[in-house]
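Morning. Coffee machine broken again, so started the prediction first thing and wrote up yesterday's gels while waiting. Chain of 420 residues, entered below exactly as on the submission form.
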Amino acid sequence: MGLIKAAVSSVKGVLGDSWLETIEPDNMGEGTVMTCGVSVRKGKGSNNGTPASISNGSVIHVYPNMMMLLVDSGKIVDYSAAEGYYEVSQSSAPSLFNGELSESIRDTWERFKFGGVASSSQKVYYINLQEIKGIKFGTKNPINYYDTKYDAELFLRVHGTYSIKINDPIKFFNEVIPRNVSRCEFTDVSQQYIDEFMDALQSSINQLSTDGISISSVTSKSRELSKYMSQTLDADWSEFRGMEICSVAIASISYDEESKKLINMRNRGAMLKDAAIREGYVQGNIAEGLKAAGSNSNGAAAAFMGMGMGMNSAGGFMSAASATNAQQMQAHQAAQAQAAQANSWKCSCGASNTGNFCNNCGSKKPAPTGGVQWQCSCGTVNTGNFCSNCGSKNPSAPWVCSCGTSNTGNFCSNCGSKRP
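Came back before lunch.
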């Protein structure tokens, strides 16, 4: 038994008039992966509500983004993924209309094709070739994630959606679809695949960690995550299930309580490296202490007396901390001022500038006459081979190796000796 494709003119002409009914796909929603064919009688515009049995001369309608399977007792006897009308012929060999599917489908056909004598109990099934979207996932338990930024093992929970596409409908029909069902949603068969998906998600998220992605940036790495998921799952899912991962969208990421505490502690420590923020923290704590003392119900005088005793014992530390913060802020401001002064230049129009163009007439900053500028580790901008402030050597200045070769890098281009 095979399929004969009918021309469009035939559908509308004499041949079309001879067809009393056609086989159409039953209702197919966004999450439907398979539905059976139902008989639609001409002139009434509605199906009879039951899967149609196929006989010689039956006409089957195939829509875009669908693959029609002609099945006999669970075995596929012919198929088509090309849009159009097809007449079933008992005397024809299988036609195998691939449509836009790859030729590898024919290899799957050889594996699952019907090997017996055709009977009269054939049925039609339609496989959805569109992307199946909005499949939800979520981690039951936190996933460990080593973050190189925090140098710590953190734990997160991930929720989102992913999508799949059926790339080998014959394999999908035989390996995934339950037997003796006339309709199948992906949610009907998804639990096992969601478990497999979550295993692959763990591996893929660990790969992001290996790539040095900070835990706070995982949400924005959906494209990379999809790629890793495809590499992890597609080999198995394509080979054994006939489907593939299309995309992964992360809707939310949350951290467990210990990870939150650690992240907050590290972020706070990173902020306190700034002397100005540190000084504000010190002064803020002093102000809070004074405020608390003033609102003491046992009397402000007693509270201030107690605070004074505490300040006498801790005052040395607070003063030293403030003095250190002030020194660091002054050094930072001085370095900034020195760098700004070194970069300043006067235009021919008389305007003083620090950028590359004059803020008055737009003229370009003239090239330095004393050589290429470089900034020393102490913050001083120089043009010579040695720092005018601390005497450090210009790291990019040319040097002559003991072999006589002149170089600018850290190793000799001739003998490989290290720069002295």
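The chain has nine helices and 21 strands. Going to sketch it on the whiteboard this afternoon.
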